[in-house]
């Protein structure tokens, strides 16, 4: 993660986009999905 000032909107967009892409690349949390079926 990165320190971002309120004046750095462009940097904020860049960092959030990078983090979002990294999380999407990981795919679904298989542990969560497996345990969700037990709860339901």
Structural category: mainly alpha
Q: What gross morphology would you assign?
A: elongated
H and E order: HH
Quantity of strands, as a count = 0
Radius of gyration over alpha carbons? 16 Å
The percent range for strand residues is under 5%
How would you state the average pLDDT, rounded?
86
Task: Looking at this protein, list some descriptive labels.
single chain, mainly alpha, 2 helices, elongated
Describe the protein in words.
This protein has helices spanning 9-26, 30-39. With 40 residues, it is mainly α. The chain has one domain (1-39). The protein is elongated. The model has no long low-confidence stretch (mean pLDDT 86).
In brief:
The chain is an all-alpha fold. It has helices spanning 9-26, 30-39.
SSE blueprint:
Elements (H helix, E strand, L loop, with lengths): L8 H18 L3 H10 L1
């Amino acid at each position: 993660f990165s320190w971002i000032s309120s004046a750095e909107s462009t940097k904020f967009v860049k960092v959030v986009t990078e983090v979002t892409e990294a999380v999407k690349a990981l795919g679904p949390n298989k542990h969560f999905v497996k345990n969700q079926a037990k709860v339901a």
